[in-house]
Amino acid sequence: MTSSLPGLRERKKAKTRAAIREAGMTLFEQQGFAATTVEQIAEVAEVSPSTFFRYFPTKEDVVLADDWDAPMVTAIREQPAELSPADALISGLRSMVSALTPDDWNAERRRQRLFQAVPELRARYLQQVTASIDLFASVLAERAGKPEPDLECRAIAGAMIGIGMAIQTDQNGMVEPADVERYDEAITLLRRSLCGPA
Predict the structure, then answer these.
(1) 46 vs 89, which has greater pLDDT?
(2) What predicted TM-score, i.e. pTM, was given to this entire model?
């Protein structure tokens, strides 16, 4: 009986977080990001402002909090040890994307539209890119048995993040399920540019 309590608690926390995020996204779309306050979001989500801050440090984080990084890290860790770092990242991405539902994709497009439209969100997004490089470089170092990320890990992680940004830029900032295939295509083009034809 006791062992089921953490699961129930986590589900309740996830439900509260989702309610806060939905309230924030709806208000941002209806009245604009700048005009929306934390107090308004908390009221619509039926929580206190202090509860809001337990889930999101700032109003910007309602949009920018990336729910994909943790599943991506798990997916990379689950890849066979013999895969190269780049192939482990691609295979992990493919695994994670295959688990996403149409609702997940719609939520991500909604999020992308908002931060593309609001300059202060775009500035914060660029800071997140650096954090993502650090995160994926750390996972690659872990896979390779290295005590910490070295230049190789950071270069590979940075290249993969850069490919993702290039694909998004090519699609007006949007991400689509078929983008995994575009990653494969982009990596092939990058290898050809760096190393010449195979």
Answers:
(1) 46
(2) 0.75
